[in-house]
Give the backbone structure.
Amino acid sequence: MNTKNTWKKYRGELYQKYFRKNIIEVFVTDKIDSVRAKAELMINNKIYIPIDIKLPYPMDRSMAGPGSGSLSIALTFDNKNIKLVTSRNQNESYSLQKENGKFHILKDKKIFLENVEMTPILFHAPRQAFINLDSRCIYNCAFCNLSKRGFFHEYDAEKFVKLILKASNRSDFQAVALTSGVYPDNTKTIKKMCYIIKNVKEKLPDIPIGVEPCISNKKEILLLKKAGAEEIKINLQIPDKDLFGKICPDFRYNDILNILGEAVELFGKGKVTSNIIYGVGESDRSVIKAIEKLAKMGVVPTLRMIRINELNKKKLEEATSDKLPNISVDRVLKIAHEHKKILEKCGLTTQTFETMCHKCGCCDIVPFWDV
Ligand code: SF4
Ligand code: SF4
């Protein structure tokens, strides 16, 4: 072999041994970093918006979900969405910066994430008209953050239909989702949901509709399905049975499991989801056991890190008779990876959903989207 060929071979080996390896490592590190960044932002949940920054889209005031009652914005980076509560307090750890028309997130005044995009929120979520039909609820779940600042309880079912049809004129409109507090009783709430679904489907037959109701019996699931809902979220909420009894005193753990089984029979595998909230004192083992239990039934759980605020902190600490633990980035990521592994084992994915949280991805680390 001549010197030229020897050098070529040597260069090839060097490339394989170091350069390519480094590229892969850098790529993997970048990917992990953006997930870590998302988890870190989720834990902190607030972003300072300097008064002189003109936002391209209006802030959203959510009536349900983690940022309920607060003004939020949705941001996108590395194909990951996140919704953060906005703050005018310049001492927040994270802040938004705008430079030459681009947005960056700063952490302690240093660049944390570059070239972040602001994503428009339709109703509560990007690309979805996700509506909370009633902010009142007869039940008392200690973590619940339903905002009392909503005006929708003055709306009747017909007004909601009009609101959704109006939203459908927007170019980013892709889906409808309905949630609700239970008021004055579940029969009335389900009836209202069914009316809205039927009437929206009549005008927009191809738009997917997801529902997040409280369910008392199989008949209610059937009514929603017949009305035209394609996806359903029935929340288990608390994975640990003992904590469940303390935090959701009006519900029974096993009843929700049975109802979820019935929902899978009617809506199909990969079309039923259920919130599992963590960060209220449960063990990782109990979270994983709950994910396994639901996934084996064909339910694709939504893993939701608890967001603590002045509305729910005292209620939760009183209910559990304990101080709430801090949640680390490592724990959030560990749970997300376990979640993905279990879904894979059960032949499920979050990507079968067209509506609600798996599709939105703003509040959780979502398997198959984020990890
Ligand atoms: S049933 Fe739903 S809306 Fe009512 S308190 Fe519980 S979590 Fe909140
Ligand atoms: S992830 Fe769910 S709760 Fe959070 S903004 Fe999106 S739809 Fe709402």
Summary: DSSP finds ten helices and 15 strands in the chain.
